[in-house]
Amino acid sequence: MDMLLDLTVRWAHFIAGIIWVGHNYSSVVQRPSWQPLRAEELSDDRSPRFQALLNREHGFFRWASVVTWCAGLLMLWRQGWLSDALALQGSLAPIGVGMYIGTLMMLNVWLVLWPHQKKVLGLVPASIDERLRCSRITHLSSRTNTMLSIPLLFFMATGSHGGLL
Amino acid sequence: RHPYDTARGTIALGVLLTLVLAALVRLLAG
């Protein structure tokens, strides 16, 4: 039963992580270079259906970040590795670094990206100028996570195939 | 331009940060 739980948590970590980072990567592929948003490009569809659609799409990857983070911590805790990973001790230092980077990324989604994204999408009332200003912040916040995902995945890989560092 | 304004700049920064952190981990925890 314990093994089944460990496997399920690890599986959830992979799936939620792919949903989260996959969403981020797809935005890089769609818009590889920054193009300033124009006022006429801001969606002003106030219909409840459209707002719900936007909310669901963004909610999906936002909550995937929480599932990924919780599953990652749970894995470390169940293995008895959490305290050494937190302290960056010995062979658990790499996965510990990965854990800290992942935590930063999750906080970035919730505390920087989402509050500004709500204004850009029109889910929270804001002036056109404010929405355009926020679109720059959401771009930088999103690309910060793209950038951080590179060392994150490196330390996940080296952490579970120890001895490389 | 900000490095994040191109995909290439974003990836280059990510690789650079990886190398720096890997060197630090090797130095301090290895």
From TrEMBL, chain A:
Protein name: Urate oxidase N-terminal domain-containing protein
Native species: Denitromonas ohlonensis
Record Pfam families: Urate_ox_N
Keyword Transmembrane found: yes
Limits of the Urate oxidase N-terminal domain: 92-158
Keyword Transmembrane applies: yes
Keywords: Membrane, Transmembrane, Transmembrane helix
Chain ranges passing through the membrane: 59-77, 97-114
